[in-house]
From TrEMBL:
One of its GO terms (molecular function) is olfactory receptor activity. Pfam families: 7tm_4. Residues 39-288 form the G-protein coupled receptors family 1 profile domain. The lineage of its organism: Eukaryota, Metazoa, Chordata, Craniata, Vertebrata. Its main location: membrane. Signal peptide: none annotated. Odorant receptor. This is Olfactory receptor. It comes from Aythya fuligula (Tufted duck).
Length: 313
C-alpha cells in the first residue's frame, strides 16, 4: 500500500485525449492568462504612477491586483505547459507548492475583500472619520494582516494535508493540485483532521461574509438617502464592482469545497475550479475599470502618455 513518502509525483487531469483539443485548451488558457496579466498589470501601473489614486481604496485595489496575478500564475502556467508537452505529471514538491500558494493567495484575497468592504463602509457611512480610521499606517497594517492571515492559513492546511498517508494512487482529478482532490487519495478516516480544519476555515470565511453583507446593508441605507443622483451614482460605482467580485469569489469557492460528494464529477469539479481560480483574476480588472470613472480616466491618461512617448522615440 502506497503512502505519501512513496509518491514522487502526481498526475493531473488531462483536458482532452486528442492533440488538437489539447492545443485548443492551451490557446484558450493562454488568452485568459494574458488578459489577466494585462488587466491587473495595467491597474498596478496606473495606481502606482497616478498620485491622484494614492488613496486607501486604490491602495487595497493594488494589493488585490497583486494577489490576482499571483493566484492565476500559480495554476495556469503548469496546466498550459502540460498541454503543450502532452503530459500530466507534476512533482510532489510542485503539487505541495501549488496548494500552498493557492491557499495563501486566495485566503489573503478574501481577507483583503473584507478590508475593502470596511474601507467603503467608513468612506460612505463615516466620512468625517475616514482620514483618522484609514490613515497610511492603518492601511498598511490591514493589508499586512490580510497577507499574513492567508499565509498562516495556507501553511497550516498544506502541512496537515501532506502529512496524511496516501493510499489511493496519485491521479488528481483536477488541472491543478487542490486539497479536496488530495484528500480523495488519503487513507480512510485519515482525512478527518484536515476536514475539520476546512470547516474551521469556512466558518471564518462565513464570518467575513457576514461582515461584508452587514457593511453593505449600512452603505445602501446611507446611499439611498443621498439627495443628489450624482452622489448616489458615485457611491454605487465604487461599491457595486466590489460586491460583484465578492459574490463571484465566495459562491464558487464555497461550492468547490463544500459541495456534497454525491454531486461531484470530474467535469463539474473542473468547471467550478475554473470559475473560482481562473475567472476572477481575469475579470476583476474589467469589473473595476468598467464601473470606476476615475480609474478609467487614469488608465486612459497613462496609455496616451505611453503612446506619445513611443511616438517621440
Amino acid at each position: 500500500m502506497a503512502n505519501s513518502s512513496s509518491v514522487s509525483e502526481f498526475l493531473l487531469l488531462a483536458f482532452a485525449d486528442t492533440r488538437e483539443l489539447q492545443l485548443l485548451h492551451l490557446a484558450l488558457f493562454l488568452g485568459i492568462y494574458l488578459a489577466a496579466l494585462l488587466g491587473n498589470g495595467l491597474i498596478l501601473t496606473t495606481v502606482a504612477c497616478d498620485h491622484r489614486l494614492h488613496t486607501p481604496m486604490y491602495f487595497f485595489l493594488l494589493n488585490l491586483a497583486l494577489l490576482d496575478l499571483g493566484s492565476i500564475s500559480t495554476t495556469l502556467p503548469k496546466a498550459m505547459a502540460n498541454s503543450l508537452w502532452d503530459t500530466r505529471a507534476i512533482s510532489y514538491e510542485g503539487c505541495a507548492a501549488q496548494i500552498l500558494f493557492s491557499l495563501f493567495l486566495v485566503g489573503a484575497e478574501y481577507s483583503l475583500l473584507t478590508v475593502m468592504a470596511y474601507d467603503r463602509y467608513v468612506a460612505i457611512c463615516k466620512p468625517l472619520h475616514y482620514g483618522s480610521l484609514l490613515g497610511s499606517r492603518a492601511c498598511a497594517q490591514m493589508a499586512a494582516a490580510a497577507w499574513g492571515s492567508g499565509f498562516l492559513n495556507a501553511v497550516l492546511h498544506t502541512a496537515n494535508t501532506f502529512s496524511l498517508p496516501l493510499c489511493q494512487g496519485n491521479a488528481v482529478d483536477q488541472f491543478f493540485c487542490e486539497i479536496p482532490q488530495i484528500l480523495k487519495l488519503s487513507c480512510s478516516d485519515a482525512y478527518l483532521r484536515e476536514a475539520g480544519l476546512i470547516v474551521f476555515s469556512v466558518s471564518v470565511l462565513f464570518g467575513c461574509s457576514v461582515f461584508i453583507v452587514i457593511s453593505y446593508i449600512q452603505i445602501f441605507r446611507v446611499v439611498l438617502r443621498v439627495p443628489s443622483e450624482q452622489g448616489r451614482h458615485k457611491a454605487f460605482s465604487t461599491c457595486l464592482p466590489h460586491m460583484a467580485v465578492v459574490s463571484l469569489f465566495i459562491s464558487t469557492a464555497m461550492f468547490a469545497y463544500l459541495k456534497p460528494s454525491s454531486i461531484s464529477s470530474p467535469y463539474l469539479d473542473l468547471v467550478v475550479a475554473v470559475l473560482y481560480s481562473v475567472v476572477p483574476p481575469a475579470v476583476n480588472p474589467l469589473i473595476y475599470s468598467m464601473r470606476n470613472q476615475e480609474l478609467r480616466d487614469a488608465m486612459r491618461t497613462l496609455v496616451e502618455c505611453t503612446i506619445l512617448q513611443h511616438i517621440r522615440l
